[in-house]
Amino acid sequence: MKKVGYFEGTDSTILATLAAEGIDTLPLGNGEDGYGKYIGHITKRDNISLVVGYLHKVIPLAEMAAKPSDILYSCVIHKIPVVLLVPEQLHEKAKKVLGDIAEKVRLVDSKNALNEIMKMLG
């Protein structure tokens, strides 16, 4: 069974569609929002096929000594694909903000998110 981890605020239509398709969903938190399972604690045992959420959920606060790659570290080491929702016209700016992790995530406009997620899940 496939499982999608998602950050708070992810479109409920996406999540409802995944559930209707028989795909489990697991709420994830970024360590600051108090939502779901902390993404830094996910392991292979969680059996997550993909993580989805809005860009701002992986951008640390300015006063934090962290980078987006720190927040998404467990996804990188466990080879879990990450889809970040960003308006298409902001993709280049988002890549700059993401820094060294930009090439390891897929930026998707929210209007195309469900199609992209379903393609990636196979």
What proportion of the residues is helical, as a percent range?
A: 25-40%
* Beta-strand segment tally: 6
Order of helices and strands: EHEEEHHEHEH
Shape: globular
- Percentage of β-strand residues: 15-25%
Structural class: alpha/beta
Overall radius of gyration? 13 Å
Mean pLDDT: 96
**Strand order of the biggest β-sheet:** 3-2-1-4-5-6
Largest sheet: 6 strands, parallel
Intertermini distance: 12 Å
Can you tell me the residue ranges where pLDDT is under 50 for at least 5 consecutive residues? none
Structure annotation, total helices: 5
Outline the structure in words:
- This protein is globular.
- Helix 1 (12-20) links the parallel strand 1 (3-7) and strand 2.
- The model has no long low-confidence stretch (mean pLDDT 96).
- It is of the alpha/beta class and 122 residues long.
- The chain starts with a strand and ends with a helix.
- Strands 3-2-1-4-5-6 form a six-stranded parallel beta sheet.
- The chain has five helices and six strands.
Question: What can be said about this structure in brief?
Answer:
The protein is α/β, with parallel strands linked by helices and 122 residues long. Helix content is 29%, strand content 20%. The protein is globular and about 40 Å long.
Question: Which key features would you list for this structure?
Answer:
single chain, 122 residues, alpha/beta, six-stranded parallel β-sheet, 20% strand
Could you outline the blueprint of secondary structure elements for this entry?
Layout (H helix, E strand, L loop, with lengths): L2 E5 L4 H9 L3 E6 L7 E2 L11 E5 L13 H4 L1 H5 L4 E4 L5 H8 L7 E3 L4 H9 L1
Parallel strand pairs: 1-2, 1-4, 2-3, 4-5, 5-6
